[in-house]
Amino acid sequence: MPTRKQTAPVSEIKEDAFAKTMTATAHLRLRQLILDNKWAPGYQATEQEVASQLGMSRTPVREALMRLQQDGLVSVIPRHGMRVLPISISDMKEIYEILTSLESTAAELAASRQLSEDQLRGLEKATADMDHALSQDDLEHWAQADARFHEQLLELGGNQMLKSVVLNFIDRAHRVRMVTLKMRPKPVNSTREHAELVQAIREGDREKARNIHKAHRERAGKELLDLLERLGLNHL
C-alpha cells in the first residue's frame, strides 16, 4: 500500500510565509535607505543596530543584509554587521555598458511584440510627466518619471529575467544619478529620446528601437562619467 506523503503542519507553513514576508520587508526598507542616500557609502552598523532601527528581530534583518550583499549594495562583515559599498567611476562605466547592451535588447523585444496603444500608454504618460516636470524645473519628479519609463520598458520587453538583471544595475547606479542630478545639464535630450523610442516601438521597428535606446544610454553614460571625472568624484 503506498505511503501517504508527509506535509508540513499548517502552523509551520504560516510561520515560514511570515518569515519570508518579514525578510522581504526588511530588504525593501534597507534598500530604500541606501538608494535614497540616507545611508551614505561607508556607513556601518551592527546587525543589532539595523534590527533596532527597523523594529524587527535580527533573523529577517540578517537575511535581508545577505540579499543586499548579493545586490552589490553592502558588504556583510562577520560579527561586525554591514557596510554600505561606494560606487567608483570604473563601477559606473561598467554599469552603463551593461545597461546599454541589455536595456537596448529590451527595447528591441518590445518593438517586436506589436504592442497596442493601451500597452504603450504607460510609456507615453511617463514621457509626458518628464516633459511637464522639466517645464517646472522639478528634477526630482523628472527622475521619478524617468525611472518609471525604464521599468515599464523592461516590462514591455516581456523577459522577466532580463528585467530583474537590469533593474538591479539601475538600482546600483541610482545613488550616483541622484547625487549628480542638479550638477548635470537639464535633461531635455532624455525626454526627446524617450518619445522617439516610443514611436519606434509603436512602428514595430526593432532595429530603430535598439539603436535609439543604445544611443540614449551611451550619451547619458558619457555625460555622467565625464562629470564625475571633472569633479574628481571617484567614489559615491
Description of the structure:
- There is one protein chain.
- The protein has 236 residues and is mainly alpha-helical.
- 72% of the residues lie in helices and 4% in strands.
- It folds into two domains: 10-84, Arc Repressor Mutant, subunit A; 89-231, GntR ligand-binding domain-like (Four Helix Bundle (Hemerythrin (Met), subunit A)).
- The protein has helices at residues 10-35, 47-54, 58-70, 89-112, 117-135, 139-157, 160-179, 188-203, 206-231; strands spanning 44-45, 74-77, 81-84.
- A three-stranded antiparallel sheet has the order 1-3-2.
- α4 (89-112) packs across α6 (139-157).
- The chain is globular.
- The N and C termini lie far apart (65 Å).
- The mean pLDDT is 90.
Provide the fold topology:
Layout: H1 10-35, E1 44-45, H2 47-54, H3 58-70, E2 74-77, E3 81-84, H4 89-112, H5 117-135, H6 139-157, H7 160-179, H8 188-203, H9 206-231
Antiparallel strand pairs: 1-3, 2-3
Write a concise keyword list for the protein shown above.
236 residues, mainly alpha, Arc Repressor Mutant, subunit A, Four Helix Bundle (Hemerythrin (Met), subunit A), 2 domains, 3-stranded antiparallel sheet, 3 strands
